Amino acid sequence: MPEAIDAVFEKGAFKPLTEVAAREHGRYKIVFYPSEEFRFLMMAQESGSLDFLKEEVEEIYTLQDGEEV
After folding, report:
1. Residue-number span of the structural domain to which 23 is assigned
2. Which helix (H) or strand (E) holds 13?
3. Which of 4, 45, 46, 66 has the largest CB neighbor count within 10 A?
4. Bridge partner residues of 15 (DSSP)
């Protein structure tokens, strides 16, 4: 499950500011945002303003349009 942590970048490496549930030598994808931007994204998510992304959308294009759906 994805986990958001705070970290600091020092001497070419990210150092977690809290304990992290990670395996030694495990490989992970890291997506990072400056703290200010992350707070903005979390506020938008918590407010429900991104809920439209979860809605199912009717497919309006078909194979007859020339492109696969």
Report:
1. 1-50
2. strand 13-16
3. 45
4. 8
